[in-house]
Amino acid sequence: MNKAKARQRLELLWRRGREFLGTEYAIMGGAMSWISERNLVAAISNGGGFGVLACGTMTPDRLAEEILATQALTTRPFGVNLITMHSDLEALIDVCGRLSVGHIVLAGGLPTSASIRRAKDLGARVMCFAPTVPFARKLVRTGIDALVIEGTEAGGHIGPVATSVLAQEILPQIPEVPVFVAGGIGRGEAMLSFLEMGASGCQLGTRFVCATECIAHPRFKQSFIKASARDAVPSIQVDPQFPVIPVRALANNATRRFIEFQHEVIARCRSGEISQKEAQLQIEHYWAGALRRAVIDGDTENGSLMAGQSVGMVSREQPTAEILQELVDQALDALDAREGPSLALVGQ
Ligand SMILES: Cc1cc2nc3c(=O)[nH]c(=O)nc-3n(C[C@H](O)[C@H](O)[C@H](O)COP(=O)(O)O)c2cc1C
Predict the structure, then answer these.
(1) Edge to edge, what strands does the sheet with 156-157 contain?
(2) What's the whole-number mean pLDDT along residues 209-235?
(3) Ligand 1 pocket member 307 (CB < 6 A)
(4) Which of 40, 206, 296 to mutate to test the pocket of ligand 1 (most atoms within 8 A of CB)?
(5) What are the protein's GO molecular function terms (predicted)?
(6) CB atoms < 10 A from the CB of 121, how many?
(7) 86, 110 in Cβ contact below 8 A?
(8) Which of 28, 33, 291 gets mutated to test ligand 1 (max ligand atoms within 8 A of its CB)?
(9) How many CA within 13 A on the CB side of residue 162?
(10) What share of the chain has pLDDT > 90, as a percent?
(11) Mean of the pLDDT values across residues 131-153?
(12) Predicted local distance difference test score (pLDDT) of residue 297
């Protein structure tokens, strides 16, 4: 396949995703709390991808400020990621509607049909994470416009199933809406393989952390550059009676201390000093503020270094546009190498 044909093929493979996002490339920069703010989001969108603002725990006014600031840096489409558990979810959706945000990603649990309806009535396209085929079907019935499937290789909060398995299970079953694949994607060849399996596009997070435009603390970025895939591990739960929501992060002092902390809290509960509910709350609150501590303050030992396994493919700081171009070129080169001279010779 020559370069022009490779381009045509890639164009065909991700056309649905590009049309849905309104972008040059069907590559989403997954929202990352504290990291996906105006600068990185605008840089991803300006580079031809689709940036997504992480709302996290922002208030509606703070979100409005961030959306306006992003709109000042790019005229291209970008989305906003809202956490469904946020106590002000409706007001946050309304802010997105008022400021003409084209795409809302509802994350952190399944959204209610009322939230989906509200976002759609305000003119936004709504995306959601689907952990299984039945949930994907339910979300499609509820009127969701596109899905993200995210495998356990991803950074941040994770499910138990690998991206490759989720893709095989879900992509052939959900033709109704565009599906974007996330988790463990570090190179264009992997992106291409998911497109060929039927994905409309991909979402990457870890790969964008060391973008030049990303405001993460230099020490946070250095931790990514130094790390290999096996350093990005899920948080450990020491007792099934005290469940821990798994988060993938680079092992550091905070992850080691978390294990000791759980043992201490559970012992205090078992001795009757605190209730089970109180113990569970303390365990959940352990990580409060920890991502900010690492990303913004640069405390890479006591903060949370959320990162996916693709961290091993992050080797230096690079401009966002260069990262995007590299991914596209890797996909094109892989296509271009097909039916090359060696295969042609085999046919002689
Ligand atoms: C540091 C970090 C923070 C993240 N924060 C969020 C978040 O606030 N909301 C969300 O939906 N996903 C979050 N994610 C997941 C990303 O949006 C994305 O889906 C994921 O990083 C893709 O997998 P990858 O890391 O293997 O590229 C986060 C990921 C990382 C690495």
Answers:
(1) 156-157, 247-250, 232-234
(2) 98
(3) yes
(4) 206
(5) dioxygenase activity; nitronate monooxygenase activity
(6) 10
(7) no
(8) 33
(9) 4
(10) 95
(11) 97
(12) 98
pLDDT digits (tens, 9 = 90+) for 99-124: 999 999 999 989 999 999 999 999 99
Residue with tokens 């046919």: 347
The residue whose two tokens read 């961290």 is 311
Residue of higher predicted confidence among 338 and 320:
320
> Which pTM value belongs to this model?
0.96
Closest C-alpha residue for ligand 1 atom 19: 30
* CA-angle at 145, arms to 58 and 93, nearest 5°: 25
Q: Which value, in Å, is the radius of gyration of the alpha carbons in the chain?
A: 21
pLDDT of amino acid 340 = 61
User: pLDDT at position 341, please?
Assistant: 56
At the second CATH level, the architecture of 3-215+315-336 is: Alpha-Beta Barrel (3.20)
Specify the amino acid at residue 181.
Answer: V
Is the confidence at residue 2, as pLDDT, over 90? no
The half-sphere exposure of 182 on its side-chain side, counting CA atoms within 13 A, is 27
Look-up: residue for tokens 């008022």? 98
Long-range residue pairs from 126-131, CB within 8 A, at least 24 positions apart, any chain: 127/79, 127/103, 127/180, 130/170, 130/174, 130/179, 131/159, 131/161
Task: Kindly indicate the confidence band of residue 3, based on its pLDDT and cuts at 50, 70 and 90.
Answer: confident
Q: How far apart (Å, rounded) are the C-alpha atoms in residues 3 and 6?
A: 5
Q: Over range 188-211, report the average pLDDT.
A: 98
**Domains of the chain by residue range:** 3-215+315-336, 228-295
